[in-house]
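Q: Can someone sanity-check these two? First one:
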Amino acid sequence: MGKFQYRHFHAVQLSIALAVIYGMRVNFHVGIVRMVNHTAIGIAEYDQSEDGPFIWSKRIQGLLLSSYFWGYILTMLPGAIIAERYSAKWVFFGAVFLNILGSLLTPLASKIHYGAMLILRLLQGLSAGASYPSTHVMLAAWSPVDERSFMTSVAFSGTSMGAVVYTLAAGYIAAGLGWEYIYYIEGGVSALWLIVWGVFVGDSPSTHWFISHEESQHIINSISQGKLPTKKPKVPWGKVFRSMEFWSILVAQTCCNWAWYTLLIELPLFMKDVLNLKISENALYTAVPFLSVFFFMIILGKIMDILRAKKVFTTTEARKVATGIQCIGPLFCFIGVCYIENVTAILILITLAVMLMGGMFSGYLANHIDIAPNFAGTLMGITNTAGTLSGIGVPLFVNEVTRKDNSIKSWRIIFWTSNLMLIIEFLFYTIFGSGEEQEWNKGVRGND
């Protein structure tokens, strides 16, 4: 079909929404490098010209970086349930609006006290918790079965593009205008998206006011074979938690997130501590890997859908191959980073590691919709809650390991820990993962 397709428009809007959410998360990770007075807290090797006004110890920095996830982890499951029962569109709108507001208030909160900044980051995390589950609710409603890998990859590509654009912009804004303007400019520009989302996005094809009847029926027939449920079935909680297919996704997401957050959150610190890059170089080299994953994940998602359509792979095989790429590729890259001394080679390996992590988006992250489209948001709420424990743990772990020694010796411990997580993920998902719809997707029948 050559004409405009609203399902693809929705995938792009989901991508932008996740880019904003991720941008509001990671801009602080770049900004804090310029906000802290590193000389005052006893880190002599930092360039004094890049010192900021705040005397925040390593421990305080770790708390500030992880506090976002304390809030984030609390609202994912409630947010998923609300999005499934009422409106994923407006739940997502609220999440983005409150994160933008938090960004605009960051300079003020920082100057009041680090405790105020801690509360603000916590509130940003609370509001953002529903974003991933809402994405899955909308993808379950808008994605034809034969386009799931591609549309999931397009939607979640916003996470990497958000990391690229906001990280890169934050570095140059901080260097040129000052750290406060990171939050004013990025927050202000992001607010424009709220208008587009509010006017043109709908919860489902059957309720959307612009979509053609032809496209609406194509999506509905693909998802339900023309048989839509008269009402939303109740979640069969017991069967969900007894399902190894579900547990394979949960373990994969928890383990993968440890390695992913090590890169997403701690890459600027690694480049500063070990590679001795200045903030503008740091931002550039941190952004480039996430630009590579943006293209890789979309291309891999399309390839997986083509191979499924041609019966080269079953859905189960496609999910396991994509997840395997996400595990094995970065594992070898991390080993190289630990023992190679050439800076250029290290940057290439980091870029490859981040790029290959993109396999998760057409792997286990698309799997919730395969096994239970009726409860995709709820399942994502549960697995992402578990996965976010990594988001809380990684900053605290890294700061503890590097507190007395931030050399490559300490970073080897960090990267080998990520490798252990990737090995567990690969083995568990390969053994227990499935791409087949589960019988319990139909909901509760009698006693669960």
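And here is the second, same format, sequence then tokens:
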Amino acid sequence: MPAVKNDLLNNIEIDYNINEKPIFFSNKNVKLYNASCLDKNILDKESVDLIITSPPYNVGINYNSNEDFNEYEEYLEFSKEWMSNCYIWAKDTARFCLNIPLDKNKGGQQSVGADLISIAKDIGWKYHSSIVWNEGNISRRTAWGSWLSASAPYVIAPVELIVVLYKNEWKKKIKGESDIIKEEFMAWTNGLWSFNGESKKRIGHPAPFPRELPKRCVKLFSFVGDTICDPFSGSGTTMIEAYLNNRNFIGIELDKEYCALSKERFLQTIEKENGGISMSKYSQMDLIMEFFKKNPNRDISHPEVVDWVVKEWEKRTGEVFRDPDRGIRKLHEKGYLQKISKGVYRYDPDFVALRDDLEDFPPQLKKQILERDNYKCVICGMGKEEGVELHVDHIKPKSLGGKATLENGQTLCSKHNFLKKNLKQTETGKKMFIRMLEIAKKSNEKELIEFLEEVLSVYEKYNINGHIVWKKDK
């Protein structure tokens, strides 16, 4: 390939001391750099778990800070350089979700998708699969080639690719915490995704992608607490979805105006969608809790809740309720709902303390606790090698003032986490059975007395809630 023209590379390089990285914005587990992804020193080596990005397509889009209509060979050289840097930043088990066109007609027909995949493989990236995204934009077509003639018609597919690549190992040896539910997994592992594109006018960026795209990639290809990177951060869409799904995020964006747009959009979105936990009037979280409070002590699956809150929110506000599933999970994380199984929750006023001071382990701290415990349950020793799902939980419960600290955290398998979570319920049950036995004895109901004594004997046999004293009559 010929050398890349100086302006293509020089225009997107920034002079700065690599020890003073140009952080434009940071918020908890989010960092946005106003810099160029052509600078390999901007990020640390092997620091990223998942890269999600949509690079310039070289189709003449009017970006602020870089030219998007270069010679095709120059464009491929540019692509090689930034993808090589991503390879350096990626961990051995990192994945790479690359949103690119299948092909292009503007400026001459080119097999963009195939060419970029070939370059990525030459760099060292390994190919896993391709997702076809049908964004349904065929109505916007303006180029037909030869109209109603076989002379030179253009065939344009209204789809884009999301190419899934990985660095060295596809299967992650260390099993982290997944937050994807069954319905999402079943739908998203189908390689044809159909959802609308995003409006550049609404977002204020010439080429935004919809939130649904990074959201699916984040949940399908990364664990909670992983680090997500978007080297062309643009309007901050990947940043928003990484944060809302409890991942760390590193974004790189060349244009300062787009950085400012990202920051503003991020803060507004987080305030709107994640700030309602305070239960302010008409918040989305409040509406979800309203549904659960109307249906206490019942195991309820996501679809039933979602159907009601989406319709009710639109009726009350005239607006669309974005991602109610996330709201349900947030309420669980904050201690407002009990998780019965994957995608099934319960509101039980007797067992769930609705408190605002509950502390949860942030993703990075969870990771530290898992690493300290060698990714094994501290009770039975089962872990990643046995394929057991692991949880991080408090040693001293939150309800008794337990804090989310490294010292108060422990790794439990699903079985022992379940036993711990239900300890309070077994305590209440034992008290209830003792009280029922007293009533049965007063009315001399012999069969009921026999049944209750047998149940209470099981408590004694296995030393469950031994501090609640009961002794069988001799």
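A (reply): Looked at the second one. Residues 423-442 form the longest helix (20 residues). The chain has a mean pLDDT of 81.
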